Amino acid sequence: MLRVLTLLLLCQLTGEIAARAASLPLPGPVIGMVLMLGWLAYNGGVDADTAKVAGGLLEHLSLLFVPAGVGVVLHLDVIAAEWPAILAALLVSTFAAILAAAATMRWLAPADGGSSK
Amino acid sequence: MSDQLFQAWVYLAATPLVGLTATLLAYQIGYAVFLRANRNPLANPVLIAIALLAVLLWISDTSYQRYFEGAQFVHFLLGPATVALAVPLYRNFQTIRRTAFAIGAAIVVGSLVAIVTGIGTAWLLGASRQTLLSLAPKSATTPVAMGISEQIGGLPSLTAALVILTGIIGATFATLLLNAAGIKDWRARGLSVGIAAHGIGTARAFQVNEVAGAFAGVGMGLSALATALLVPAIVKLLL
Fold it and tell me: Which of A5, B5, B30, B120 could be disulfide-bonded to B49 (CB atoms 3.0-4.6 Å)?
């Protein structure tokens, strides 16, 4: 477990340094994800320990967004004043983006057997 | 007795323990409600947890900064968790590589639609310029969206709140919406939710199907890049 956590943090740290040094428009953790992918490809697979730690972190991924979300309390005044525009914009654009992206993907992706019933 | 209680209060107010414990408790209450509701996406655990914590901060007259001193330990794990997305990505790498062109096209289309319809709707309904700028990058994952917001003159902390709300909306309604549209392909379903609703959408996709989750992770990572490149150009053009 310690080895996997160290590896994840090393990938993230390298990603953060690369993002800043080359002023890339990508966040450090996303670059770290690519580095980690390279490491798994280099090793030719995912060992049980890595699968366990990654699975543990991803099982409750949505918990990790709670602290930033509570930050909504800092902007209750803006939201109270403009909530109809904000709510409508979030709903319309999220729905439109999901449908547009899914339709594009379905249109262009070669078929495979992995579809849901 | 009341003096001892006061001492306890002074201790609790100064330690990160309370913010951290409250975050975990609130999320577990939210998750228990979600399970009780037969995993109905309308009972979103993140939304429930945020609402409970916001009320708790208001009742106890605690500042967000004080709360975050404890909650930052949970927040910090977002980084390593994003790196860990490489594992499901690797497992589905063959499927992903075969559809690379379609993924690229869906990411550009999805990110563009998210930005333009978001700014457009808010503008039509009379939102302020600052809100429009803070809203523009809201489909990207939190750290990227905050960076873009700062760069174009929005309010990064307002952007963070809008990003989370976007994720909750996407996670809550994606299943209904995609079913209604008759899109059954797990690749298209996952990818679109990752593009439109970043990590919260990705978390939701993993709950439903591993292939959908892996594609959502790809959508989240690459739409962050697309949004970072598109938003400054669109803002210059439209605002």
Answer: B30
The 10 Å Cβ neighbour count of residue B21 is 13
Looking at the complex, does the CB of residue B158 fall below 8 Å from at least one CB of chain A?
yes
Q: How far apart are CA B19 and CA B17, in angstroms?
A: 6
Where among B17, B46, B76 does a domain terminate?
B76
Domain total in chain B: 2
Closest CB to A70 among B50, B171, B185: B50
Q: Are residues B133 and B178 in the same domain?
A: yes
pLDDT in tens, B85-116: 899 889 888 888 999 999 999 999 999 999 99
**Interface-testing mutation among B31, B67, B72, B83, with chain A (most A C-beta atoms within 10 A):** B83
Residues B170 and B103 in one domain: yes
Considering CB atoms only, which of A65, A100, A112 is closest to B46? Answer: A65
Same domain, B70 and B97: no
Per residue in A7-52, pLDDT tens?
Answer: 999 999 999 999 889 987 777 888 898 999 999 999 998 999 999 9
Domain containing B13 equals: 1-76
Domain boundaries of chain A, sorted by first residue: 1-61, 74-109
Nearest to B105 among A41, A63, A108 (CB): A108
Q: Judge whether A27 and B227 are in contact, CB under 8 Å.
A: no
pTM of the model: 0.86
The whole-angstrom separation of Cα A17 and Cα A32 is 10
